[in-house]
Amino acid sequence: MRNLKLIISYDGTRYRGWQRLAGEPNTIQGKLESTLSRILEEPIEISGSGRTDAGAHAMRQVASFHCQNPMSCETLLQQLRTYLPEDIGVQSCQEAGLRFHARLNAVSKTYVYRVWNSEAPCVFERKYVYRMDASLDLNAMRQAASHFLGQHDFLSFCSNKKFKKSSVRTIHRLEIESVGPELRFTVEGDGFLYNMVRIIVGTLLEVGMGRKAPQEIPDILAAKNRELAGYTVPANGLILWEVAYQ
Question: Cβ of 37: how many Cβ atoms within 10 Å?
């Protein structure tokens, strides 16, 4: 038995998200599993570091799977690059310890969210940014962002109304960078709830537009009430940037 680790990039525009869905072939996990099963001539089930939403993207998603086939990693990588669609690219393939698991062994994940803050069209990057032309107070947004750092219960920032597990997460970094007309939100944490990054960004944008004050964030966190947080920004601006392991 072997355990292989893949690092994958994908453009999620035309997919229903990462997770395999019954009766829905158009998922990232589904495409990878069907291609791997065909190449290795055995049923393959892969585990990703986490699920990405329909329409979201990944720069360095990590996945792992077990197989019996002795095909070399170099040959398998070449085969994957030949048979996968152009919007899913495997960056590397390597042997991993038998106990390695892409999700269970991850210690942190970093997401980047891109906002095109201009009245001018963003023609070539339009599939990868959320376009909004409202005037934004960057200083207020950064002040609000500081309140998310550390360990908190993020239930107010989760779209899953039936979420029953612990909603406590730790945010290590939340930075807002201005690059010309683009704002880039970089969020690193030990884990994320459903839509959590997208709701955090939506809340920060509402602060930037003056609809919320930075000092409201602690009360929103404490309330554990989704209705008090900001809106959920579209998935197309979200990128799973990298996953860290010990």
Answer: 14
pLDDT per 10-residue tile (average), the chain, 246 residues: 97 95 89 97 97 96 98 98 98 97 97 97 95 96 98 96 89 97 98 97 98 98 96 98 96
Which stretches does DSSP call E strand in the chain? Answer: 2-10, 47-48, 57-67, 88-95, 106-116, 130-131, 150-153, 168-179, 182-189, 238-245
DSSP letter at 157 equals G
Concerning whether 53 is annotated as a catalytic residue, the answer is yes
Q: State the Cα–Cα distance between residues 206 and 216, nearest whole angstrom.
A: 11
Phi, psi of 39 (to 5 degrees): -70, -45
pTM: 0.95
Residues 192 and 50: beta-carbon distance below 8 Å: yes
Other beta carbons less than 10 A from residue 21's beta carbon: 13
- For residue 69, give the DSSP letter: -
* CB count in 10 Å sphere of residue 5: 19
- The position carrying tokens 């042997």 is 95
R_g of the chain, CA atoms, integer Å = 19
DSSP 32: H
Report H helices in 54-176: 73-83, 138-146
Q: Count Cα neighbours of 26 within 13 Å in the Cβ-side half-sphere.
A: 9
Phi, psi of 103 (to 5 degrees): -90, -50
Task: Choose, from 11, 53, 153, 219, the residue flagged as catalytic.
Answer: 53
Contacts of 96 (CB under 8 A, 6+ apart): 3, 4, 5, 64
